[in-house]
Specification:
Blueprint (H helix, E strand, L loop, with lengths): L8 E7 H11 L5 H11 L1 E11 L3 H13 L2 E6 L1 E3 L9 E3 L3 H10 L6 E5 L6 H9 L3 E6 L6 H6 L2 E4 L4 H4 L4
Parallel strand pairs: 1-2, 1-6, 2-3, 6-7, 7-8
Antiparallel strand pairs: 4-5
């Protein structure tokens, strides 16, 4: 099914926070081994990058080890906590990877023909338009209510995450 939308070598970029929020709203979870296998067996996979906040806990470290062994390239950074002066608002927590994803996708553009982006964030609109001007195909995968109109309009193909559920869902 993904083969209809990609051509040549593909590179998968996963905005983990965006993807996890999407699947959480759909009430299911991703099996990252299945996700990797899906792209490895169905496409000419050049690589998969997973961008995720690092919490420095044992459970997450084990998860990261599994991802690395599978073949994922991990890009992590610590959660940034911005203390509010107004205590009623609570602290602001940030770990945005938009710049990292955009820069890596652009710098790696010679290693793929199709970019697959797991994110619905409108901040990627400029990147997608730029890659398309340079002859790249871009497939965006996100949940229906987590995708920006800009990305739908700028990519070659938008895929609703629900369509991949049979291939990448983590079973209980």
């Amino acid at each position: 099914m993904i083969q209809k939308y990609v051509k040549g070598r593909i590179y998968v970029f996963i905005d983990a926070a965006n993807l996890e929020n999407s699947v959480k709203s759909l009430d299911w979870w991703i099996d990252y081994r299945k996700l990797y296998k899906f792209f490895k067996t169905k496409t000419k996979l050049a690589g998969v990058r997973h961008y995720c906040v690092r919490h420095n806990d044992e459970r997450q470290d084990k998860f990261f080890t599994v991802l690395k062994r599978q073949g994922f390239k991990l890009i992590t950074k610590p959660l940034k906590i911005i203390t509010e002066t107004d205590k009623s608002k609570g602290d602001l927590r940030k770990a945005n990877f938009d710049v990292e994803i955009a820069l890596d996708a652009y710098l790696l553009k010679d290693s793929y023909d199709t970019m697959v982006l797991f994110s619905g964030d409108s901040d990627f609109d400029y990147l997608i338009k730029r890659l398309r001007m340079e002859g790249k195909r871009v497939v965006v995968i996100s949940a229906k209510y987590h995708i920006s109109r800009e990305l739908i309009d700028s990519c070659n193909k938008y895929l609703d995450l629900k369509k991949l559920k049979p291939y990448i869902e983590r079973l209980k």
